[in-house]
Amino acid sequence: MPDSADLTAFALNCSLRGSGSEEPSSTDRMIADLLAELRPHGVEGSVARAVDHDLVPGVLSDMGPGDGWPALRRRVLDADIFILGTPIWLGNPSSVARRVLERMDGFLSEADDRNRMPPAGKVALVAVVGNEDGAHACHAACFQALNDVGFTIPANAGVYWVGEAMQPRNYVDLAEPPEALRSTLKTASAHAVHAARLLKRDRYAGVPSVS
To answer: What are the residue boundaries of the NADPH-dependent FMN reductase-like domain, all occurrences included (predicted)?
Structure first.
């Protein structure tokens, strides 16, 4: 029986399409495959589509009435493992993913008396899908931002699938993930659980502010 049974994961799908779209989401499929690999480790996960929520432009954790970010922020921080899922557009993370990362900028001003930002002790994974180059660039941009605001990035934390350029087949169209990707999903999941388990038992001590 896994001793990480009390761990949870929360994924934000940063597709440009809302959950009411009739078109299937490759980002949803990638997130589902990643959550499936976390499940044998005893990790329960949930998913939300960022565009279903009104993420008001800004860099504060609460931009006032009507802002949809505070509710998503709670779910991000309640989970031990956060998954940011994004498609590639023009070689970059989606505008929705960038909006999510902008809103996380608010964490920078919310450090406690030991300079720990709210995500300190939380682990982050990034899942990327697309039919063009850019997966590594997307990972680099997302991981840098997530690390800046306090998330821990475990080894091999990036998973991706990039189809043949300018072709119609998407990740969601595949019958099964390629074997190399399946191995990557398993590795990312195992490393994320290992790091999250350690951090849940022994959170970063932080450093007192210098007066």
So the answer is: 19-165
3-class secondary-structure state, position 110: coil
**Is residue 3 one of the residues assigned to a domain?**
no
pLDDT in tens, 47-85: 999 999 999 999 999 999 999 999 999 999 999 999 999
Count of domains for the chain: 1
CATH number of the structural domain spanning residue 180: 3.40.50.360
Please indicate, yes or no, whether the overall pTM of this predicted structure exceeds 0.90: yes
Q: Which domain holds residue 151?
A: 8-201
DSSP states of 22-67: SSPPHHHHHHHHHHHHHGGGT-EEEEEEGGGS---SSSSS--STT-
